[in-house]
Amino acid sequence: MKPVKVGICGLGTVGGGTFNVLTRNADEIARRAGRPIIVEQIGARRDNPDCDITGVSRTHDIFEVARNPEIDVLVELIGGYDVAYELVMEAIANGKHVVTANKALIAVHGNEIFRAAAEKGVMVAFEAAVAGGIPVIKSLREGLGANRIQWLAGIINGTGNFILSAMRDEGRSFDDVLAEAQALGYAEADPTFDIEGIDAAHKLTILASIAFGVPLQFDKAYTEGISRITAEDIEQADNLGYVIKHLGITRATGKGLELRVHPTLIPKERLLANVHGVKNAIEVMGDAVGPTLYYGAGAGAEPTASAVVADLLDVARDISTDHRYRVPYLAFSEVNQHGDTLPIMPMEDIETACYLRLQAVDRPGVLARVATILAEQGISIEAIIQKEATEGELVPIILLTHRARELHMNEAIRQLEALVDVAGSVVRIRVEDLDDNA
Ligand SMILES: NC(=O)c1ccc[n+]([C@@H]2O[C@H](COP(=O)([O-])OP(=O)(O)OC[C@H]3O[C@@H](n4cnc5c(N)ncnc54)[C@H](O)[C@@H]3O)[C@@H](O)[C@H]2O)c1
Ligand SMILES: N[C@@H](CCO)C(=O)O
Ligand code: NA
């Protein structure tokens, strides 16, 4: 059969990995696809020392790839929102299929990209965009297609999990571990995307659309990163029987969809609490299947390439199918473009239990004042730890609360911070309490 001709744009970590996997496993891939998948052209500004691209046509202008009539599929691996958007839209306008690892692009411009692709009848595949090599998009979109999804929760940023794991297990500093994650090619070009939860929110936005059939709504995701997690909170959480993980959570409730990314206390025995280093894991609760868990490498050259090449295989197999009968981009053939069936809930309406840590002056009555503020907001306390201190010194008070509405917790924290007995700000880490006993 005629080969599928691919143009790779961007030859960095993922581009290099994709080229190497495609060439190294070419025979196996051709047997699976029923036809060879060959790299016809590479659009890259720089060489990648890990790739030998001898014999492959190379251009510095990635838009040349989008215009090359020989190319069937453009693989976008340059990253970012702007140039990548123009490149993908041009490729689609020229009737090319697109494979991308770019979650920022899909989360922010996906609705428009899918509309343009549907009009042209081309595929846009993005398995590598969420949780790197884990085939979670395929699992959710196809494997769980019978289910009403109730919630999903995942560790979906490899860099962040790498940092939290090394801080906890090796006592290393935040900055030192981040530098290592960058050297290993895990981090985004701007690592604040990893640290401040933006990358995880991009991925969660995509997962929520596939799980619930709503349009991509990145601007409505609540996003909080890991930059304020300290060694002390990691230790206190450990004492209480928890591990701190950075989770993306989306859940269907009677009031709408929760869509939130933040550090979370997870009981140590939960599988998600035992996912370390650059590994990602996503737990999905379906009404028929119950809980399922998807685990693997969330970043890195070849794990991510594994997902890019799997998408190329899908394209190679489906290329001649009438596009109306292909698996829809976001799983549902009718995505309600107004999102008014399941609105995204404001964070203030969401209820969680919380870990609170405050620094208080150790004098009589402090605990009572703290407890009164919480009680006035209707927040009940599950546990309190207060360390011994000499009179007048600052001591940490650790509280675990029962579930409370975010709005009330915000008000309680505001009042606690205003107490003269309390120094600095109150640390709040929400507790994961999704029920996976199906
Ligand atoms: N690194 C990972 O583990 C990983 C995992 C999953 C998804 N991703 C996504 O994959 C994409 C690529 O990430 P990466 O880690 O390979 O980045 P990278 O920085 O290693 O590679 C990007 C390459 O694109 C090139 N490039 C950028 N703009 C260009 C332009 N206008 N013209 C020509 N070349 C251009 C850069 O020179 C660079 O070589 C991003 O969208 C990222 O979010 C990365
Ligand atoms: N920077 C991302 C790459 C994978 O999407 C991460 O660390 O998870
Ligand atoms: Na994936």
UniProtKB/TrEMBL annotation:
Domain ACT, residue spans: 355-431
Biological processes, Gene Ontology terms: methionine biosynthetic process; threonine biosynthetic process
Top-level taxon in the UniProt lineage: Bacteria
Keywords attached to this entry: Amino-acid biosynthesis, Methionine biosynthesis, NADP, Oxidoreductase, Threonine biosynthesis
Binding site for NADPH: K103
Location of the active site: K203 (proton donor)
Positions annotated to bind L-homoserine: E188
Binding site for NADP(+): C9, G10, L11, G12, T13, V14, G15, G16
Catalytic reaction equation(s): L-homoserine + NAD(+) = L-aspartate 4-semialdehyde + NADH + H(+)
Pathway: Amino-acid biosynthesis; L-methionine biosynthesis via de novo pathway; L-homoserine from L-aspartate: step 3/3; Amino-acid biosynthesis; L-threonine biosynthesis; L-threonine from L-aspartate: step 3/5
CDD domains hit by this protein: ACT_HSDH-Hom
E.C. numbers: 1.1.1.3
Record NCBIfam families: PRK06349.1
Protein name in the entry: Homoserine dehydrogenase
Organism in which the protein naturally occurs: Cobetia crustatorum
